[in-house]
Amino acid sequence: MTEVNYPVDIDVKDPAERAGLPSAIDPSLLAAKPPAETLARDRVFSIENLTAFYGNAPAIRDVTFEIYQRMVTAIIGPSGCGKSTFIRCLNRMNDVIPNFKTEGRILYHDIDLQARNIDPVGVRRRIGMVFQRPNPFPKSIYENIAYGPRILGLKDDLDSRVEKALRRAALWDEVKDRLKRSAWSLSGGQQQRLCIARCLAIEPDVILMDEPASALDPIATTRIEDLMHELKRDYTIVVVTHNMQQAARVADMTAFFNISRGAEGERSGVLVEYDDTKTIFTQPKDSRTEDYVTGRFG
Amino acid sequence: MSVAQEPAAGPAAIQRRGRFRPGDAILYVVTCAAALTGVVLLGLITHEVLTQAWPAMQKFGLGFLTTQAWGDKGNTLFGAKSFIFGTVVTSFGALLLATPISLAIALFLSELAPRWIRSVVAPLVELLAAIPSVVLGLWGILVLGPFITGTLGPAIHGTLGWVPIFSTKPTVGSNMFAAILILTIMIIPIVSSICRELFVSVPAELKDGALALGATRWEVVRGVVFPYARAGIAAALILGLGRALGEAIAVTQVIGNRVAINKSLFDPGDTLASRIAGQYQGADTALQVASLVYLAVILLVFSLIANLAAQLIVRRVAGRHQV
Amino acid sequence: MSANAPTADLFRSERMRRRRIVNRLVEGAATVAALLAVALLVIVVSSVVRQGWSAINVDFFTKTPAIYTGFGPRPASGISSAIIGTLIIIGIALVMALPVGVLTAIYLNELAPRKLASVLTLAFDVLNGIPAIVLGIFVFIFVVVGHGQAAWKASFALAILMVPMIARSTQEVLAVVPASMREASLALGAAKWRTTLSVVLPQAVGGIVTGATLATARAAGETAPLLFTSALYSDSVSYDPRQPIASIPMFIFTSAEQADPVLHQQAWGAAAVLIGIILIASLIARWFADRSVRRLKGER
Fold first, then answer.
1. In a shared domain, residues B8 and B143
2. What residue spans of chain C are helical by DSSP H?
3. Which of A245, B77, B199, C241 could be C151's S-S partner, Cβ–Cβ 3.0 to 4.6 Å?
4. Do A203 and C3 touch (CB under 8 A)?
5. Which of C22, C103, C257 is closest, CB to CB, to B218?
6. What CATH number has the domain spanning C80-299?
7. In this predicted complex, what is the ipTM?
């Protein structure tokens, strides 16, 4: 199968960003990162030859790499390259889509996530997800956070659980006096932090984030990114982003996905390169990666 | 395009445009008159019904509502008490049975069923609504009634006879229980189709959010779908109740038409709508007719309340979700 | 904070099992409920068909009810008078209700100021919810008392029933016509009335037919208004709209009350015919609805 490299349109939001790409990635940011070899490398996920199909069309093909514990791993790439599809495989959220199937394996702490005796409900307890647009439930702030623990039967000490989660998500001070108010009364950025707190309340192991800041203003975005820095001390974070600066700012490891065309012209996403962030952005090994991060196609 | 070729485009034509067009006026008046018929009819109906009921309202006053009688004392005493009782018992009884079934059907069609099952079952449930009440009543008399006296009634009475509502054995096929069952069949399609649309309109991202927290499908429904749709469900139930309150034909065919307040559902009774339908033919005296119309007034009040309540809920919800 | 054994939950645990069981139970209950509804439909319709089948033959559709002297078994005959009567009654009702419904929808959707439109819409929604028996009593008081029953008075009662339904479905389809189409017509210099009648209304025809067909199907099955306006208790045959005439719902209603098995059988047959009419009408309505949806989508 020949891979044809097309300059594919990325929907980079800010044209100014796009114009100044090479210099927009602050070298000092990257210098601050220790080289990945010195970081502890416990494997959380081991993805082996993962191919995912909607019906008969493969959305991602033959993806193989590893995700490590207590790091932020960013998935970047042009739109349509299957980033969201990939990340939703990690917590089996794609199960709700009819005609979806996968080939290949996803090992989570060496356990095959797609084995028959694995319950997706249990998977999602441990591998949480934050979505692109904040989606708080039509309930009060307190009830939103309490929803997860209640389902799991962790009904004792709900108040302190809720408080702990809100503190972790850096939202406690802003809402502590109005916990009974509707969650929809919060601003967009606050709602997203609420969703993160909701996720934290059930004490996951991994947090998946599908473009968590793309619907937020720059200030709210910065707060989410600061949050990611803090959270990675305790959780493994995998974040999908179309914003390369964001990846450079927050991620320890970065995986670059691209669209490739098959023999009959069908498009699917493939993993092009995976390395620590500094390498991806300063010395990428693959020319396609270099083209992408320098904005040559976009 | 030169002006010379199109004299109509000159200043004269523009002047004409400012003037009133008779065609517009005619359309406005005609359509406005049509639209006003709704209000006019409502007013007419209320007025006429109140006027005709007035003799009875004057004679009996509000005591009518607490008197259990029909044609007693030489055809001079009439009261609505047993019919109000029958209306309330049958309507709410039917609502009680229909609510879980309708919600379950709506859940099935919106969340559970694969597409092909959905496209088969949904039209069938709607078809249930299309069965005319007189046909359901016919089925009630000739099929359901014997079934109740022969099989179902003795079975329930045998096992649950100690419960007051099942304390007698059905001897005739026409009783309140039959009416409740028939009304339930009528309510189910209405409530389930409204609820189904409600459930479908819950945003997928809300459901995804709950799923991502490790909730089972039922937990998603209970925690997110029901709260989101709660007002709409209430409106649907009230609409169903309104339907049951007003049903005359099918009920009068199966309820037994007795002026009685009985504890047991297996005994006959009567409702407001059913009595009007059943007694109309035999109404001789003016007082009797006026009393029947008095019943219609009470029924009208009930159904107007139910209807307005449902409409208000719907309008309030529609306003909120537009934000 | 990762739990010590993050993978423990992946496998079935006790609490997990309970939640799964509850989930399964609810899914099962929902399926049972849906099957119950379908079963009810099948039971009722199959009763009608099974029982009514033996009554249906050519005579059923062509003969009028036989004169019964009361001696011996009742001769089975036909309900042609009832069928024709129903067609007459709902035909007149449609003639009354369709213009009013469509014009109402035009006013509410195109011409009325917003606040007035919502008040009037509320009035029609309330009118929609008035029980048919109350409508029957109203028409009885309004035009029957002192003047006698008549088929057209039955049509009047049914028309009151039909107008809100036709108005609502016409409104829905008018709302779908894109504003740009109206604006284009107005920009060409056409008057509002011409725009409405020549440009907007033709687009809505599919929806109007759908609404009218559904309203007719509903009205065909209504019995309560007929009790007060067109209740024919003898076997006489009349097609004069100024007199009460026979109708299928009244035939079923009165036959069901009798103890005569021949009449019961005929009632089943009449019920089958009635359901058949309603079914055909619903299918026509649905076909029209699909067609106009496809048309609108294609033209976009």
1. no
2. 14-53, 58-62, 80-106, 114-128, 132-139, 151-176, 179-187, 192-194, 201-220, 224-229, 248-257, 261-299
3. C241
4. yes
5. C22
6. 1.10.3720.10
7. 0.87
Domain ranges across chain A: 15-293
Among B34, B60, B86, give the residue marking a domain's end: B60
For A62, residues 6+ apart whose C-beta sits below 8 A from its C-beta are A49, A50, A51, A104, A270, A271
Using alpha carbons only, give the angle B184, B188, B189 rounded to the nearest 5 degrees: 140
CB pairs below 8 Å between B and C: how many? Answer: 257
Name the residue facing A202 among B206, B213, B228 (closest C-beta): B213
Q: Are residues B269 and B279 in the same domain?
A: yes
Instruction: Provide the CA B64 distance to its chain's centre, in angstroms.
Output: 25
Q: What is the mean pLDDT of chain A?
A: 84
Q: Is the pLDDT of residue A149 over 80?
A: yes
Answering whether pTM is above 0.90, one says no
User: What number of other Cβ atoms are within 10 A of residue B10's Cβ?
Assistant: 11
**Same domain (yes/no): B33, B164:** no
Q: Which residue has the tokens 């709660």?
A: B230
Please give the residue range of the domain that contains residue B41: 3-60
The answer to whether the CB of A144 falls within 8 A of the CB of C42 is: no
**Sign of the Cα pseudo-torsion (C233, C236, C240, C242, in order):** negative
3 state SS of B70: strand
| pLDDT of the residue at A17 | 42
Output b/e per residue, C268-296; b: 16+ Cβ within 10 A: bbbbbbbbebbeebbebbeebbeebeeeb
Q: Do C34 and B108 touch, CB atoms closer than 8 A?
A: yes
Question: Does B239 share its domain with B155?
Answer: yes
Output the domain CATH number for residue B302. Answer: 1.10.3720.10
CATH 3.40.350.10 for domain A15-293: no
**For residues A298 and B209, which has the higher predicted lDDT (pLDDT)?**
B209
User: Of A209, A205, A195, nearest to A251 (Cα)?
Assistant: A209
- Please provide the DSSP assignment of B23-64 as one string: HHHHHHHHHHHHHHHHHHHHHHHHHHHHHHHHHHHHHHGGGG
| Chain segment C199-219, per-residue pLDDT in tens | 888 888 888 988 999 999 999
How many structural domains does chain B have? 2
Residue of A111, A126, A167 best to disrupt the C interface, most CBs of C under 10 A: A126
B147 and B18 fall within a common domain:
no
Above 50 in pLDDT, residue B179? yes
What gap in Å lies between CA C252 and CA C271, rounded to an integer? 7
Q: Are residues B44 and B162 part of one domain?
A: no
By C-alpha distance, which of C39, C165, C40 is closest to C94?
C165
Query: How many residues are listed for chain A in this entry?
Result: 298
Q: How many CB atoms lie within 10 A of CB C252?
A: 30
The answer to whether residues B215 and B292 belong to one domain is: yes
Q: Are residues B137 and B258 in the same domain?
A: yes
Q: Does B97 contact chain C (CB < 8 Å)?
A: no
Q: Is the CB of B34 less than 8 angstroms away from the CB of C100?
A: yes
Which residue among C40, C167, C231 places its CB closest to the CB of B185?
C40
Residue B296's identity, in one-letter code, is A
Positions in chain C short of pLDDT 50: 1-4, 300
DSSP codes joined into one string, chain A: -PPP---PPP--S-HHHHHTHHHHS-HHHHHTSPPGGGS---EEEEEEEEEEEETTEEEEEEEEEEEETTSEEEEE--TTSSHHHHHHHHTTGGGGSTTEEEEEEEEETTEETTSTT--HHHHHHHEEEE-SS----SSBHHHHHHHHHHHHT--TTHHHHHHHHHHHTT-HHHHTT-TTSBGGGS-HHHHHHHHHHHHHTT--SEEEEESTTTTS-HHHHHHHHHHHHHHTTTSEEEEE-S-HHHHHHH-SEEEEEEEEE-TTS-EEEEEEEEEEHHHHHHS-SSHHHHHHHTTS--
